[in-house]
């Protein structure tokens, strides 16, 4: 008894609209006990005129759509053994062809093959009518996935960035309660930042070669289904990493309270981790892995290693810990409120550590900004008010007598400090407006030289008071479309900064030139330059290189912040460079025609 092997046979089409020399395809069975078949064999299928609705039985060809695909399903697949395909041609002769497609799926699973004409995956059972595989609707057309349709185990591929399923086998389509894979891949899975972060973390873990599984809950059409998932890496067509998920539904009874608690912790907007007494990680929720990575220890999250070791020893000794500390995250150093307490491990019963933490950086920075504001404003208010009070007191008290020159000098001192107070109030109002986005630009066509020269003249008295020479190199005839008042404010802030930090008798240089993108203005000084520790925060609000109450150079720390905001509003950029011979050069660049 020979076993049968499936092969493809082409016979002449009976469709009068087709060319008589163009064959149509038929699937048949050939006895593997012989390497040849008689032309008169029933399975040789001479040309037939079967219509498109013909059924598939025995060796009778059946038509399918415009391709007129015919199928014969008989026998059991032989192990990989060569066979022959018989091609019928119009003269009635039969020719053997050595090229053959052999299918080897086990019974009674669905048998899969490829349509020779369309290269679409096909699925068929016994005498069932031919139907197309769900892969037809999938954006992934990878032949490696074909065999997965034979499994009873649900398998699907997820795009972690798009948070959607991009391919699924039949078992997965059934698990997700979908009509077909087209409906599943287009289903809205209600992606959230937490779910996206979870999938991306899983992708990172499998890309390192780690193999792992976990119990999770999915919600096909709103119904909770508990499954055990295992994950593997699978490359997507565009080169990004995807996740191949194998899911085994959990049939055993489980405690709903336990499941709800686990899901709540997993997706809570709070870092939750458990550790062994040596600090090694036992479990971490989604936000914890987003914040600290996939592998970290309790002591290792602290910015100061010595502090981490101290806190670990404290908690391992049986004492709880509650404190705001600096920690090292995937985004840099942050402030977290950390609560750690000793607990027994729920699985082994051994002593462990439960940690919960949340990011306090924004609140702490706001508190510091408030403290800085109070400190800076009180200092900047006290100094001019003291001068004003002293000058007016001398005049009112008669100390100046009837000396007009002395009286004028004291009144001039009071007037200058009133102006200083006015600038402070203006800066504070500008900061509030900039933060609220309520400042709009009043653009106009002006000559850049007029704007820069106007700022230099306004600061001439302050430069003369320190015997500082301001040199300008600004060519006339540089038309720009900007807000002249705001650009002049930027130059004034640069000049104020340069004059304050330059020693008496030095030179401050102002230079402007055209560049490919628009224009550039520079203000250079011969001061101490920008300290290394201050470079990252020099353009922040209330930032001072020396923020102590005894600092020798005044200022609110708002000028450069305001200047940067104005430049950015014009579509430009602002920065600084430490000079080769000392000092610093602050500059801004922007297009010659700004847009509001």
TrEMBL record:
Record's protein name: histidine kinase
Gene3D superfamilies xref list: 1.10.287.130, Histidine kinase-like ATPase, C-terminal domain (3.30.565.10), PAS domain (3.30.450.20)
Matches recorded under Pfam families: HATPase_c (PF02518), HisKA (PF00512)
Coiled-coil intervals, chain numbering: none
UniProt enzyme class: transferase
Residues covered by the Histidine kinase domain: 376-594
Catalytic activity: ATP + protein L-histidine = ADP + protein N-phospho-L-histidine
Entry GO MF terms: phosphorelay sensor kinase activity
EC number: 2.7.13.3
Region annotation Disordered: where it falls in the sequence: 1-59
Organism ancestry: Bacteria, Pseudomonadati, Myxococcota, Polyangia, Polyangiales
């Amino acid at each position: 008894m020979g076993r049968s092997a499936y092969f493809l046979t082409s016979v002449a089409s009976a469709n009068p609209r087709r060319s008589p020399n163009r064959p149509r395809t038929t699937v048949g069975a050939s006895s593997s006990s012989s390497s040849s078949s008689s032309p008169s064999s029933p399975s040789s299928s001479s040309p037939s005129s079967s219509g498109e609705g013909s059924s598939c039985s025995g060796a009778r060809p059946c038509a399918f759509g415009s391709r007129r695909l015919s199928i014969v399903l008989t026998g059991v697949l032989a192990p990989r053994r060569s066979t022959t395909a018989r091609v019928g041609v119009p003269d009635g002769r039969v020719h053997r062809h050595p090229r053959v497609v052999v299918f080897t799926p086990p019974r009674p699973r669905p048998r899969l093959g490829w349509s020779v004409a369309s290269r679409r995956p096909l699925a068929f059972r016994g005498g069932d009518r031919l139907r197309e595989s769900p892969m037809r609707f999938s954006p992934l057309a990878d032949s490696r996935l074909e065999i997965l349709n034979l499994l009873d185990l649900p398998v699907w591929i997820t795009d972690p960035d798009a948070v959607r399923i991009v391919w699924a086998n039949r078992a997965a389509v059934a698990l997700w309660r979908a009509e077909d894979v087209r409906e599943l891949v287009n289903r809205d899975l209600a992606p959230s930042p937490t779910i996206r972060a979870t999938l991306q973390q899983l992708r990172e873990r499998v890309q390192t070669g780690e193999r792992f599984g976990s119990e999770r809950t999915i919600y096909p059409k709103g119904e909770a289904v508990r499954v055990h998932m295992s994950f593997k890496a699978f490359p997507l067509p565009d080169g990004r990493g995807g996740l191949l998920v194998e899911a085994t539904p959990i049939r055993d009874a489980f405690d709903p309270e336990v499941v709800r608690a686990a899901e709540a912790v997993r997706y809570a907007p709070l870092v939750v981790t458990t550790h062994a007494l040596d600090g090694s990680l036992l479990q971490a929720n989604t936000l914890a892995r987003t914040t600290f990575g996939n592998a970290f220890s309790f002591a290792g999250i602290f910015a100061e290693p010595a502090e981490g070791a101290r806190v670990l020893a404290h908690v391992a000794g049986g004492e709880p810990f509650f404190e705001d500390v600096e920690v090292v995250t995937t985004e840099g150093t942050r402030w977290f409120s950390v609560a750690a307490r000793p607990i027994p491990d729920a699985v082994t019963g051994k002593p462990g550590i439960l940690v919960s933490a949340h990011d306090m950086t924004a609140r702490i920075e706001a508190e510091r900004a408030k403290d800085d504001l109070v400190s800076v404003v009180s200092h900047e208010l006290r100094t001019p008010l003291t001068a004003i009070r002293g000058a007016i007191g001398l005049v009112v008290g008669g100390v100046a007598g009837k000396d007009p020159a002395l009286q004028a000098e004291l009144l001039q001192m009071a007037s200058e400090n009133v102006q200083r107070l006015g600038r402070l109030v203006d800066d504070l109002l500008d900061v509030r407006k900039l933060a609220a986005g309520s400042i709009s630009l009043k653009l106009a066509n002006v000559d850049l030289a007029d704007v820069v020269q106007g700022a230099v003249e306004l600061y001439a008295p302050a430069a003369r008071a320190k015997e500082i020479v301001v040199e300008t190199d600004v060519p006339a005839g540089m038309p720009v479309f900007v807000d002249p008042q705001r650009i002049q404010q930027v130059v004034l802030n640069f000049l104020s900064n340069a004059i304050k930090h330059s020693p008496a008798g030095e030179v401050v240089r102002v230079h402007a030139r055209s560049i490919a993108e628009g224009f550039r203005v520079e203000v250079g000084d011969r001061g101490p330059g920008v300290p290394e520790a201050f470079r990252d925060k020099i353009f922040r609000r209330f930032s001072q290189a020396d923020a102590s109450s005894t600092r020798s150079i005044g200022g609110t720390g708002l000028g450069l912040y305001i200047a940067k905001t104005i430049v950015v509003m014009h579509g430009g950029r602002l920065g600084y460079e430490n000079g080769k011979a000392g000092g610093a050069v602050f500059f801004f660049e922007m297009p010659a025609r700004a847009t509001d």
